[in-house]
Each structure stands twice: as C-alpha cells, then as structure tokens.
C-alpha cells in the first residue's frame, strides 16, 4: 500500500526503489561500461528513498536506512570476490530492501 504525501498523491514503498537502485545501478555500470552512470542511478534512488524515510520516520530513520543502503553497496564489493558479482548484489539487496520494508514501509 502506498503512503500519500501532502497533495494526496500516493508514493511507492521504498523497498522496491532500494532494490532497483542496487540491482539497477550494478547492471547499468556493468553493461554500459560506465561506472559513473551506475553510481548516478544508485545515488538517485538512494536520495529519493532517504527523502521518503525522513518524511515518514524522521532523520534517525533516514540516516540509519541510508547507511544500510550505502553499506550494502560497499559490502557487495568484497563479497563479490567470494561468491560472485550477481549473487553478492542480490544478497546485499535482500538485506537493504528488507530493512526498508520492515522499518519504513510498514508505517
């Protein structure tokens, strides 16, 4: 179910945006050969999500989930050396999107 902002316009839950940012950012970087494009996409999804988290739960929630999102990106790199790139991206995405769903989207 979507929450409504001030204008009564429904906003999507953040967990799918978090998942899209992590998976999509990696895919864009990998298949375009342009890491900065993937990073820009990742950052855009993160900024949008952080804004929603701040609105729904305040700055503490936004900071906590923002660190989880950024941490997932960071952890995916060393994890990829152990289990492979795509499995690492999917694993950290599950954690970050799960945290967003549990802590922000159920409000």
Q: Could you please describe the fold and organization of this structure?
A:
- By secondary structure, the chain is mostly helical.
- The chain has one domain (13-105).
- The protein has four helices and two strands; from the N terminus they run ββαααα.
- It has helices at 14-32, 35-57, 59-83, 85-105; strands at 3-4, 10-11.
- A two-stranded antiparallel ribbon has the order 1-2.
- The protein starts with a strand and ends with a helix.
- The mean pLDDT is 94.
Draw up the topology in text.
Layout (H helix, E strand, L loop, with lengths): L2 E2 L5 E2 L2 H19 L2 H23 L1 H25 L1 H21 L2
Antiparallel strand pairs: 1-2
Helix pairs in contact: 1-2, 1-4, 2-3, 3-4
List keywords for this structure.
about 110 residues, mainly alpha, two-stranded antiparallel sheet, 4 helices, 2 strands
Shape type: globular
Radius of gyration: 14 Å
Strands side by side in the biggest sheet: 1-2
Oligomeric state as shown = single chain
Number of helices: 4
The structural domain count equals 1
Structural class: mainly alpha
Strand elements, count: 2
- Tell me the distance between the termini: 10 Å
| Largest β-sheet summary | 2 strands, antiparallel
The overall average pLDDT, rounded, is 94
Beta-strand proportion: under 5%
Percent of residues in helices comes to over 70%
Short overview:
This protein has 107 residues and is mainly α. Helix content is 82%, strand content 4%. Strands 1-2 form a two-stranded antiparallel ribbon.
């Amino acid at each position: 179910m979507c929450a409504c902002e001030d204008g009564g316009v429904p906003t999507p839950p953040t967990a799918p945006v978090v998942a899209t940012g992590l998976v999509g950012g990696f895919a864009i970087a990998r298949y375009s050969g342009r890491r900065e494009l993937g990073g820009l996409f990742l950052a855009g999804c993160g900024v949008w999500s952080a804004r929603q988290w701040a609105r729904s739960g305040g700055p503490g929630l936004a900071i906590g989930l923002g660190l989880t999102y950024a941490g997932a990106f960071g952890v995916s790199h060393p994890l990829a050396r152990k289990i492979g790139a795509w499995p690492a991206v999917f694993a950290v995405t599950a954690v970050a999107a799960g945290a967003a769903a549990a802590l922000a989207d159920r409000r």
